[in-house]
């Protein structure tokens, strides 16, 4: 549950600190202590800004990443509000947020809105920001404050996949984009923005060629626009209606997605008892 997820993140951060090369003796002990929750600076908690008290580590860990780790270490035991405040402050830009209609005009092509370019750039410069998103996603009320940023990331993923010329997924070339896409989908699912079977979309992405990934992400996009996080969880009737958007994707990629079919479209009670026709593709 929540404690296990947080513990995993803390352990990852501790391991990153400990693995810093070139430190020994007192310096390495200081790094280990920092990872275990020892004394840390309470100053300059803004993500990616200011300077850390661990100045002797600056040459080994880039500034933004170090400050994010400091933030997680110092605020983990407090309310997630502090973490969300810091993330929102870091991502706030003077550029206007594109409207739903503006996105509709350009997707699936790449977004050239200044807001999206800025958000994409900040996450590319500091990949550890996705760790912060992961943490916040355990608190749906807080993740709602990041809706514009996650929507922007999803739009960027759609546009980037759409611009890919390869007809097949290349794990080596598309690895980072695939990871970001899955992280965005998983954060949304964790916060119940995406309910079953949409909350398993990240599993489908990994089995599809780029063009079909675009198709899936657009279906996710349109579902989120129709039922945004602010509107609360989907009702069963709305959820059932939206599931039909997934079936054509399974039909056209049945060889790759056949093992997942039963999870996405489980048989009804009548079908299990033999009183109804099996679901048709």
Automatic annotation (TrEMBL):
Residues 31-54 are annotated as: Disordered. Residues 116-222 form the Integrator complex subunit 5 C-terminal domain. It comes from the Eukaryota. Transmembrane segments: none annotated. The lineage of its organism: Eukaryota, Cryptophyceae, Pyrenomonadales, Geminigeraceae, Guillardia. GO terms for biological process: snRNA 3'-end processing. InterPro entries: INTS5 (IPR040316), INTS5_C (IPR029444). Pfam families: INTS5_C (PF14838). Residues 31-42 have a biased composition (Basic and acidic residues). One of its GO terms (cellular component) is integrator complex. PANTHER family: INTEGRATOR COMPLEX SUBUNIT 5. This is Integrator complex subunit 5 C-terminal domain-containing protein.
């Amino acid at each position: 549950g929540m404690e296990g997820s947080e513990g995993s993140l803390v352990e990852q951060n501790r391991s990153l600190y400990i693995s810093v090369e070139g430190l020994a003796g007192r310096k390495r002990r200081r790094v280990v202590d920092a990872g275990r929750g020892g004394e840390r600076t309470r100053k300059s908690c803004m993500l990616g800004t200011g300077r850390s008290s661990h100045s002797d580590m600056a040459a080994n860990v880039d500034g933004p990443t170090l400050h994010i780790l400091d933030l997680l270490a110092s605020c983990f035991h407090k309310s997630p509000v502090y973490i969300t405040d810091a993330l929102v402050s870091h991502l706030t830009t003077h550029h206007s947020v594109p409207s739903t209609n503006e996105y509709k005009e350009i997707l699936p092509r790449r977004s050239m809105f200044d807001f999206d370019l800025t958000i994409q750039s900040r996450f590319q410069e500091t990949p550890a920001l996705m760790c912060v998103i992961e943490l916040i996603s355990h608190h749906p009320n807080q993740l709602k404050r990041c809706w514009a940023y996650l929507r922007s990331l999803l739009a960027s993923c759609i546009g980037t996949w759409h611009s890919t010329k390869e007809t097949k997924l290349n794990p080596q070339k598309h690895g980072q984009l695939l990871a970001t896409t899955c992280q965005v989908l998983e954060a949304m699912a964790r916060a119940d923005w995406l309910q079953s079977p949409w909350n398993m979309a990240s599993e489908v992405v990994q089995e599809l060629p780029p063009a079909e990934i675009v198709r899936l992400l657009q279906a996710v996009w349109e579902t989120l626009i129709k039922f945004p996080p602010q509107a609360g969880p989907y009702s069963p009737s709305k959820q059932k209606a939206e599931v039909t958007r997934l079936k054509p994707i399974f039909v056209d990629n049945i060889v790759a997605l056949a093992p997942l079919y039963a999870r996405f479209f489980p048989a009804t009670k009548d079908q299990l008892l033999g009183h109804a026709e099996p679901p048709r593709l």
